[in-house]
Amino acid sequence: MEFLHENLPFLCDYWPFILTGAVCLMAAIVLFKTALEPPVDESLPPEPDLLDELDELESMEDDSNPDVVPALPADIKHIPFQFSRFPIEDSQKRSQEFYDLMNKRRTVRFFSPDPVPKEIIYNIIRTAGTAPSGAHTEPWTYVVISDPDIKAKVREIVEQEEKINYDRRMGPQWVADLKPIKTDWVKEYLTTAPYLILVFKQVYGISENGERRTHYYNEMSVAIAAGILLTAIHNAGLVSLTSTPLNCGPGLRVLLGRPKNEKLTLLLPVGYPAEDATVPDLPRKPLEEIMVEI
Ligand SMILES: Cc1cc2nc3c(=O)[nH]c(=O)nc-3n(C[C@H](O)[C@H](O)[C@H](O)COP(=O)(O)O)c2cc1C
């Protein structure tokens, strides 16, 4: 101590002030660095890659915990699979015929108001309900609208948003890409077609006791189901227009009284084509361009 007093008298007399100053300086540096970092926007969804990983992790959850109760009954019966194998020639014929049928499917933007029996629509939706889904969560709701007043309200919401989309949100490239298809913000078909089918994905489910249930891969499950829905519409001899109205989801969800766990994914007018309906003459990529054989 003597030695320190003799050689570093300043340090000995003022060490409490020096220590306090050093601590304050360090705190100021930390605060300054934090202020420079961009804030984390909690309202933004996680990066898509991260979402995929989360989905994967959830689907690999450790179920060895005895408290974890499966969503399906744990003692679900496993039954013999009913299957009748076609002769190979039949399979070849069926695959060719089905391709020929599906190759005639087109997106139609001009509808006839001719009525369609409801039973056909029910069968179409039953067919979509046969789609596979992550852990058999069946994360979909199909809202079928035939009420003219509700169709008019849907059109009002969609056109209001689509006008802004075309004018401001989409940008010149997107608008230019849509020009050859001749689509714009006016959506007459929403009131002309006898039915509108709105496909909602259930982002999560709610169990009987009110707990949230994870809907694994709900996006992919609903996309597959939508493909089956479109196929069923075409197979029934009806036409449709696949549309994903930008920014209309929340307004339509509220209009239709759907719960918060449901998000609009597709809006499909369904019916017969107008007599003078036209479609753009679009080529489809040949097999060699869409398939890689290894
Ligand atoms: C996810 C998705 C969204 C689409 N959104 C619209 C749309 O908002 N408006 C529209 O007129 N067509 C829309 N289409 C239809 C496409 O333009 C159409 O499928 C494409 O031009 C090919 O024509 P095709 O279906 O007759 O083979 C959409 C298609 C898909 C798959």
Supply database-style keywords.
Nitroreductase-like, alpha+beta, binds flavin mononucleotide, Nitroreductase, ribonucleotide binding, iodotyrosine deiodinase activity, 6 strands, flavoprotein
Alpha-carbon distance between the two ends = 82 Å
Q: Could you say which structural class the secondary elements and strand pairing correspond to?
A: alpha+beta
Bound ligands, each once: flavin mononucleotide
Number of H- or I-type helical stretches: 11
Number-wise, the strands total 6
Radius of gyration: 30 Å
Biggest β-sheet description? 4 strands, antiparallel
**What is the molecular shape?**
elongated
The poorly predicted ranges are 37-47
Overall pLDDT confidence: 87
Organism: Nezara viridula (Southern green stink bug)
GO molecular function, one term: ribonucleotide binding
Keywords: Flavoprotein, FMN, Membrane, Oxidoreductase, Transmembrane, Transmembrane helix
Domain Nitroreductase: 104-272
Walk me through what this model shows.
There is one protein chain. The chain has a 4-stranded antiparallel β-sheet with strand order 1-2-6-5. The chain has a two-stranded antiparallel sheet with strand order 3-4. Helix 5 runs antiparallel to helix 9. A hairpin with a 5-residue loop joins strand 3 and strand 4 (212-214). The model is unreliable at 37-47 (pLDDT under 50). It is α+β, with helices and mostly antiparallel strands and 294 residues long. Helix content is 46%, strand content 11%. The relative contact order is 0.14. The chain is elongated, with a radius of gyration of 30 Å. The longest helix is centred in the first third of the chain and has 28 residues, at 9-36. The protein is built from 11 helices and 6 strands. Bound molecules: flavin mononucleotide. Flavin mononucleotide binds next to loops.
